[in-house]
């Protein structure tokens, strides 16, 4: 027979079921799996461990900050204050940038344009020379045709006697003139660019020897070593160290430098002609100076790539090297 449950017993059981559901979030679970006390204790333990770890981390960070000698060192603090107190004057920065542009980039662009114009002028000059050669060839052809006509007349016996002799004389004169013109045209064609530059310098400028001494290396190819280059761009004049040399021609000092294989060297420029003096012991002049021909500008040395005391003298026209011996006699 079924046991009769009283109303109080039912109320008590209902309250127990309600409490169990409330602790389990409203999920019905068997009463044998409910252990609310153990779960609460485990959750509190996790929170306690997390709080302790956070406190240790904060303490460790403060310890590092307090005991670090770098992050907050006097040097770092002073540099930081100096940087924060620095007042940038953008107007001065703009002026400096403008000056740099005018002194460097603008000058470079102007030099590039001048080089382009000089190249164009050189091309035009070459075209004119070629046209002149063609005209001379046409004239020679016409004169040759006239000679052939004269020969035909003489061979045919037209005129005879004195007229034939005059035609032969005229033929000889014309042939001589043609040969002379052909010879001159051939010489002009055979001239190299370096010879043309040397002739222009000799015709338009005055140049003297900067120094007299022993010529140890001439212009052009030579046997290279670790110090000596394979192609010599100037002429070397050997004398005792400290010997004073002079300016070969007038001009303006455009460069005084100690860099590179030339050692102490100086450029003096007039129009598009440059004279260069290298391996100096001492240089008397500075950039921007105006130099007169024969002025003392330095002393011979062996700075840079040199095997002994000597003066390296170099001539350039439109940035093309010219053999100094095509202009001056170094004998």
Give your account of this protein's structure.
- This protein is an alpha+beta fold and 331 residues long.
- The protein folds into 3 domains: 1-25 and 36-86; 107-190; 208-326, Glucose Permease (Domain IIA) (Distorted Sandwich), CATH 2.70.70.10.
- It has 6 helices and 12 strands.
- The chain has helices spanning 7-23, 36-67, 74-85, 90-156, 161-190, 193-204, and strands at 214-217, 220-221, 231-232, 235-238, 244-246, 251-257, 264-270, 273-283, 290-291, 296-300, 310-317, 320-322.
- Strands 1, 4, 5, 6, 7, 8, 9, 10, 11 and 12 form a 10-stranded antiparallel sheet that branches. It has a two-stranded antiparallel ribbon with strand order 2-3.
- Helix 4 runs antiparallel to helix 5.
- It is elongated and about 165 Å long.
- Mean pLDDT is 78; it is low at 153-161.
State the share of residues found in helices, binned by percent. 40-55%
- Number of H- or I-type helical stretches: 6
Question: Could you say how many structural domains there are in total?
Answer: 3
CATH homologous superfamily (4th level) name of the largest domain:
Glucose Permease (Domain IIA)
Chain-averaged pLDDT: 78
Strand content: 15-25%
């Amino acid at each position: 027979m079924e046991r009769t449950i009283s109303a109080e017993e039912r109320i008590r059981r209902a309250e127990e079921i309600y409490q169990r559901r409330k602790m389990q979030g409203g999920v019905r679970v068997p009463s044998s799996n409910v252990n609310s006390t153990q779960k609460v204790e485990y959750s509190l333990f996790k929170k306690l461990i997390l709080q302790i770890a956070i406190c240790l981390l904060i303490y460790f960070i403060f310890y590092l900050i307090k005991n670090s000698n770098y992050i907050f060192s006097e040097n770092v603090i002073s540099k930081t204050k100096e940087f924060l107190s620095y007042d940038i004057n953008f107007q001065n920065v703009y002026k400096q940038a403008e000056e740099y542009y005018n002194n460097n980039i603008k000058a470079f662009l102007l030099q590039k344009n001048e080089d382009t114009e000089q190249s164009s002028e050189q091309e035009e000059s070459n075209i004119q020379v070629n046209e002149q050669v063609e005209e001379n060839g046409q004239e020679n052809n016409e004169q040759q045709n006239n000679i052939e006509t004269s020969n035909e007349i003489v061979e045919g016996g037209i005129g005879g006697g004195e007229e034939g002799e005059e035609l032969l004389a005229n033929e000889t004169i014309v042939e001589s003139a043609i040969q002379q013109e052909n010879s001159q045209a051939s010489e002009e064609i055979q001239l190299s660019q370096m010879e043309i530059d040397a002739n222009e310098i000799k015709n338009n400028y005055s140049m003297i020897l900067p120094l007299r001494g022993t010529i140890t290396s001439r212009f052009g190819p030579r046997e290279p070593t670790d110090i000596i280059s394979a192609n010599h761009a100037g002429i070397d004049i050997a004398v005792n160290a400290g010997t004073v040399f002079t300016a070969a021609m007038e001009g303006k000092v455009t460069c005084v430098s100690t860099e590179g294989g030339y050692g102490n060297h100086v450029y003096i420029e007039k129009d598009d002609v440059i004279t260069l003096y290298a391996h100096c012991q001492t240089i008397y002049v500075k950039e921007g100076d105006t130099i007169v021909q024969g002025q003392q500008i330095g002393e011979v040395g062996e700075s840079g790539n040199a095997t002994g005391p000597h003066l390296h003298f170099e001539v350039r026209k439109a940035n093309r090297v010219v053999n100094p011996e095509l202009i001056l006699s170094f004998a």
